[in-house]
Specification:
Elements (H helix, E strand, L loop, with lengths): L2 E5 L10 H10 L4 E4 L8 H7 L8 E12 L2 E8 L6 H27 L6 H8 L6 H10 L30 H10 L3 E4 L13 H9 L4 E5 L5 H14 L2 E4 L19 H10 L6 E2 L6
Parallel strand pairs: 1-2, 2-3, 5-6, 6-7
Antiparallel strand pairs: 3-4, 3-8, 4-5
Amino acid sequence: MRIDLHTHSTASDGTDTPAGLMRSAAAAGLDVVALTDHDTTRGHAEAAAALAGLDRALTLVTGAELSCRVDGVGVHMLAYLFDPDEPELARERELVRDDRVPRARAMVGKLRELGVPVTWERVAAIAGDGSVGRPHIAEALVELGVVASVSDAFTPDWLADGGRAYVEKHELDPRTAIRLVKAAGGVTVLAHPLAVKRGRTVSEGVLAELAAHGLDGIEVDHMDHDEPARARLRGLAADLGLLTTGSSDYHGSRKTCRLGEYTTDPEIYGEITRRATGAFPVPGTGGRP
């Protein structure tokens, strides 16, 4: 089985529609794909509906990537197979989403103060119906020739945490996120915890504290982790009793990673589905009625 547990669609900051993402996942030879858009579940219904039209039997894992912050460090919490209608978690996701537009407008304002002729209208057009965020602003900077790639915009000069154009937004404490996802029957995995290219990362002490609060796993095999980082994370996971996952963090054409570039062991996937009670994977029929 080929299992990719971290992807994004146009419901947040990817470039594939949810249905298009399912087609791309099938074409890439995946057996299981998780749709984990930022702070939203809006793409799940379209993705699930698209499974029946595929030539390959593809299973959809519903999820989200929750925006969190601890000790001044931004972290992302992958939440899988939770009940999307659980009211407290739904309310927190809404608070984060509602803060995205004023935050993005404020970052555009900072960029203009720095002499960058970016406009809110262009950023909003790039975001379309998705949840607007820094990748959309980064794409506008690429269009203007300010940076060469979306990744190049995430530096202290521009959009990285604490960067010249950075603006904070409403974010969950990751301990609260774990509690809410668990209450909604879901499973939690900390995304790319040692992605140092993105800025500051959490300490091993914080990882241990999150494990004590019920964190299920950490994302190990990821494009932003080099081999020493992966080895370190596997050691920490073994010490803390955490699951280890691998995934592409696919964003379509907005990033260079490919679907299935990194994958999760089938036994780990089986344990995630065993622990989940809020929702269940959605199996596709591969063209069979």
